[in-house]
Specification:
The chain has about 100 residues and is of the alpha+beta class. The chain contains two helices and five strands; from the N terminus they run βββαββα.
């Protein structure tokens, strides 16, 4: 499945901040240089979705804050539920959306 992601690098902690419409906001402590923030985004999403880090990859937007991330091994319904948005499209709050303890 593919997720549209807005990345906030150099944040105070790694976390899923919630949904902004159809875009998932992901905060990472890594700086936006030499792929560090991209790697951190994939790691945060993989942990939240319960898949290996190798199951995720950036497919578009490597040098942009807005990215398209592809994650294999999880279907869209399960991913949205784990990331705080159920099938009905209820938005997530800024309380980690039940995705872990970061």
């Amino acid at each position: 499945m593919r997720l549209s992601v807005k990345v906030v690098p150099k944040a105070s902690r790694d976390r899923i901040a919630g949904w902004m419409g159809d875009v998932l906001k992901v905060c990472v402590t890594a700086p936006p240089e030499r792929g560090k923030a991209n790697a951190a985004v994939v790691e945060v999403l993989a942990e939240a979705l319960g898949v290996p880090r190798a199951a995720g990859r950036i497919v578009a937007g490597e040098t942009s804050p807005r990215k398209m991330v592809e994650v294999s091994g999880v279907n869209e319904e399960a991913a949205r539920r784990k990331l705080g948005r159920g099938a009905a499209g209820a938005g997530a709050s800024d309380q980690n959306a039940g995705t872990g303890s970061w």
